[in-house]
Amino acid sequence: MKLLTALLASAALAIGAPVSAQHQADTVDSTLPTQLPRTAIPSHYAITVTPHADKLTFDGSVAIDLQVVKPTNSLTVNAADLSFSNAAVSRKGMSPLAATVTTDADAQTATFTFPRQLAPGAYRLTIDYSGKINTQANGLFALDYTNKEGKDARALFTQFEAADARRFVPSWDEPDYKATFDLTARISTNEMAVSNMPASSTKTLGNGLKAVSFRTTPTMSSYLLFFASGDLERISKPAAGAEVGVVASRGNAEKGRLALDAEALILPYYNDYFGVPYPLPKLDNVAGPGQSQFFSAMENWGAIFTFERSLLVDPAISTEGDRQRIFETEAHEMAHQWFGDLVTMAWWDDLWLNEGFASWMATKATEHFHPDWAPEIDRVAAREGAMGLDALSSTHPVVQEVRTVEQANQAFDAIAYSKGESVISMLEDFAGPDVWQAGIKRYVKAHAYRNTRTADLWAAQEAAGAEGLTAIAKDFTLQPGIPLISVGPAQCVNGATVTSLTQAQFSADKKDEAAASPQSWHVPVKATAGASTAQVVTSGRTTALSVPGCGPLLVNAGQRGYFRTLYAPQQAEALVSVMPKLPAVDQYGLMADQMTLSTTGYQPMATGLDFLDAIPANASAKVAQRAINRWDDLYDLLDGNPAGQTAIAARVIREYGPRLRQLGFVPKASEPAVDALLRTTLIATLGKYRDAEVVSEARRLFGAWQGNPDAIPGSLKSTWLGVIASNADAATWDAIHAKAKATTGFAERTSLYQLLGRAQDEALARRTLDLALTDEPGKTLSAGMITAVAQQHPTLAINFVLQHLAQVNGLIDISGRSSFMQRLAGDSHDAALIPVLEAYAKANLAESDRAPVQRSIDRIRYQSAQLPRIQAETAIWLAAHPQ
Ligand SMILES: [Zn+2]
After folding, report:
1. pLDDT reading at 140 higher than 80
2. Quick check: helix, strand or coil at residue 615?
């Protein structure tokens, strides 16, 4: 989510200058879906908020400058969980008209009705109201923690996307109603307040209170407004003409140094990439001591909010993976400052414009600053993640219809983020990075401070020279699903490999219908036969391909394409033989693609396994990590088949055990970051397979840690303890529990409570679930414990949640409730869950809001149907391939 420079020359765009109602009016598109009557358009909000943190309530007042565009005797705004005392409308030369207020809880609106009609023109609507402070991340919410002195403390934050600004201020809470905001907060004199803009004044009010006012924001959507207060501290530094900062609870800000440095590094890079300098005077990232099952960070303009684990480095517990995630989260949220905040999707249908773009940009920034982290492998992993959902018949297009608040919440899924990222990555590759960047610059410049739809991006790209891009882009964003490219017999003709590509739709759960579907895509396909790379764009069912050279034919070379490739058996065999020589990204991409074609029944398991087995033991660290994970997925699919599981475990230990011995159990100061990641994967997986050496080291470290919390290096603590926790008996579980209870550092405490959920022992899993429903872990930790249990015991966790649904719902953000069940079901292949999930959806979700649960059901159904074949064929392959 993000913004710019040349446009700042225009008065309408200058920071702090409220945009006139006329300017505002043309950003509101009357063809957009809306829940509000299009009778008035707000241009400016002046909000005063007085939180009563101890009582979890707040008082508010707001003056909204607006333009009435159609004669009306009432104004309807969004409002949820707010109570109203006074409301009136006024205009120059007219005495104020008091309003009567009615609210509609289901529609989340309040209607102010006046004794007579308002003629079109400029008005000010003033409202006094009060609201609730929540204990999960919706609207204004409280996070409780233990402070530096060991005392209970509470800090307040806001979270408004998608539709929760209305819990803080009655407002036109839809993204196309952009306006400017003034915020004043009345808080205790010893607290700090943070908002989108720097403070403009602080006044002492007496009785230990002060009023902090912030400078006027630029024109922006209501979901980007932010406020926090508490016993906070801030570190900052200048960067690229602005100031970047990290805000955390007192005593913790220094842990944000890594994030602060990342902000300072990324800001000038983005200024340059977007061609528009960051337009606010400061950019803070505010740390929240808690967590959510819905999100880890939010791109509020000028004041990103991030839960601590994704922002602060705690040497006691942070892993190399955490450190990399901090950089990537920063890169994602900062990309939104332009893509989302400066230029905003007009409606939630186009949410992917925000999320797909920010995800893609984060990978691009990581590639620029940390190529040694091999982010190109993660990009392919994102593609695979998206395809997991997109292969189901219940998937949806990237641009999708959103008509309810719940559907807006559900829109934040792998299609918006990861398919969005993959499609942009493919389009950038097609256009070329320079043309693509020129298109982005055009788009940002043309739509700054305004709203867009997806077609605006394609238009800017074509104008920048990306000829033919729109046809590809439309196919991949307006129709759902994944192309399946089948490679025909290849011939060597005059030193070139000549073949034809046939396309159909790839489907995990409805193969026959997909094969018969006439749906096709313009797919940019890159291929190589060992010499240079050739590209064609498919059109219709069959497309001819000619590639220089006559070696084994690799389709989707470089792995930027969003499609699956089915080879004839001989072609697959030839590729297997050259696997060790392929670039790392192709080794991984090819293996992942071929394994999925095998597990979904497009080809025998043996083909996929041959590719997996062909990943060399000395593959790059990231590829080795992914290969181990894939073996482990298969290990889980062989649940109930101990001989098969033993064979896989032995194979992984023999193949990759030497890598662990080479890396050693102890992190080295100068080792590559990817080696540190591989070490955690090796310890966790070999520990799961009860490798004698790993288990004995885990036991030794666990014993030492009980006496000395520093006995395990912080970067490996959750990994080693994870080995112990998953194999825990009751005494071990009790020991970890006692440590969790006694730990005050938020990140470490969170980690320990979640470890309790890792126990394979069902009785201990039940104890974790029971513990999650007590007050002991704290309001935002419990849902994560239940999620941890679900990874081992999905059916147990789901049945438990259904028995305690009201209580569990209180532990999850409103926005995350309906997707929580999907998260618990995860990769389960237990067909017994299908009727349970169906009954849950019917009883608890409106018909319009059941799609995510339906996707879980579809996934379980096809996986359970494929399971006997996967097990039988894998057993045969393992027997035929002893190591
Ligand atoms: Zn995002």
Report:
1. yes
2. coil
Q: What are phi and psi of 394, to 5 degrees?
A: -90, 15
In sequence order, what are the beta bridge partners of 123?
A: 66
Residue 604 DSSP SS3:
coil
What distance in angstroms lies between residue 792's CA and the mean position of ligand 1's atoms?
Answer: 29
Instruction: Show the tokens assigned to 336.
Output: 């939104």
Do 327 and 359 form a contact (C-beta atoms < 8 A)?
no
CA of 739 to the centre of ligand 1 (A): 35
**Quick one: 821 exposed, middle or buried, by C-beta within 10 A (0-12, 13-18, 19+)?**
buried
Preceding omega of 240 cis (within 30 degrees of 0): no
Contacts of 56 (CB under 8 A, 6+ apart): 132, 133, 134, 135, 142
For 801, the token pair is 């949640």
Distances (CA, A) of 293 to 141, 409, 589, 822, 824: 15, 12, 29, 12, 11
DSSP one-letter code for 793: -
Residue 157 and residue 194: Cα distance in Å, rounded?
Answer: 9
Q: Contact at 8 Å (CB) between 310 and 291?
A: no
**Residue pair 625/677 in contact by the 8 Å Cβ criterion:** yes
Q: Tell me, what amino acid is at 668?
A: K
The DSSP code for 553 is: -
Question: What does the alpha-carbon distance between residue 229 and residue 154 come to, in Å, rounded to a whole number?
Answer: 9
Distance 331 CA to ligand 1 centre (A): 10
- For residue 797, give every residue at least 6 positions away whose Cβ sits within 8 Å of its Cβ, in sequence order, or none: 765, 769, 786, 787, 789, 790, 824
What is the 8-class DSSP label of residue 217? P
Structure tokens at 169: 């201020």
Other beta carbons less than 10 A from residue 840's beta carbon: 19
Give one word for 526, left, alpha or beta, with left for phi > 0 and alpha for psi -120 to 50: beta
- Residue positions counted in the chain: 883
Instruction: Cite the active site residues.
Output: 333
Residue 449 CA to ligand 1 centre (angstroms): 18
> How many whole angstroms from 94 Cα to the centroid of ligand 1?
45
Write the CA distances from 398 to 98, 155, 193, 475, 561, integer angstroms: 45, 37, 38, 10, 16
710/704 Cα distance (integer angstroms): 9
How confident is the model over 743-787, as pLDDT tens digits? Answer: 988 889 999 999 999 999 999 999 999 999 999 998 888 999 999
491 φ/ψ sector (left φ>0, alpha ψ -120 to 50, else beta): beta
Total-model pTM: 0.94
Q: Are 615 and 849 in contact (CB under 8 A)?
A: no
Residues facing 89 on adjacent strands: 97, 125
Residue whose entry in the numeric block shows the structure tokens 């006074």 = 86
777 and 786 in contact (C-beta within 8 Å)? no
Distance CA 756, CA 772 (A): 10
Distance from residue 678's CA to the centre of ligand 1 (Å): 27
SS3 string of 8-37?
HHCHHHCCCCCCCHHHHHCCCCCCCCCCCC
How far, in Å, are 416, 686, 823 from residue 633 at the CA level? 25, 14, 17
- CA–centroid distance, 246 to ligand 1, in Å, is 19
Q: What is the 3-state secondary structure (H, E, C) of 644-678?
A: HHHHHHHHHHHHHHHHHHHHCCCCCCCCCHHHHHH
> How many secondary structure helices (H) and strands (E) does the chain include?
29, 30
SS3 83: strand
User: Tell me, what DSSP letter sits at residue 179?
Assistant: B
Tokens of 6: 């040349």
541-572 pLDDT, tens per residue? 999 999 999 999 999 999 999 999 999 999 99
Residue 627 Cα to ligand 1 middle (Å): 28
Per-residue pLDDT, averaged over 289-298, amounts to 90
**Quick one: pLDDT band at residue 83, thresholds 50, 70, 90?**
very high
In 732-835 the beta strands, taken as DSSP E runs, fall at none
